[in-house]
Hints:
This protein is an all-alpha fold. 52% of the residues lie in helices and 0% in strands. The protein has one domain. It has helices at residues 5-11, 17-31, 39-45, 48-58. The radius of gyration is 13 Å and the shape is elongated.
Amino acid sequence: MIINYDKLLKRIKHKYAIPIAASRRAEELEDFGRPKVDQTVVKDLGDHVSIALKELEEGVIRIRNEEMLRILLPKVD
């Protein structure tokens, strides 16, 4: 199963938020979470980070407060 990063960037406008959101979701999956994607996808991907990225790509999970993501934008003068 391939994760389409371009599709992720269309959903989440701040590219630096993608690894942060994926890592937090992967921690949840490791601790107590259940994947929100199809079980065949889970078997194909295997690790928690890939599953989290696939969930973000498909839109089954999302970032709650996108306004807070503005701090991730680089300041260019």
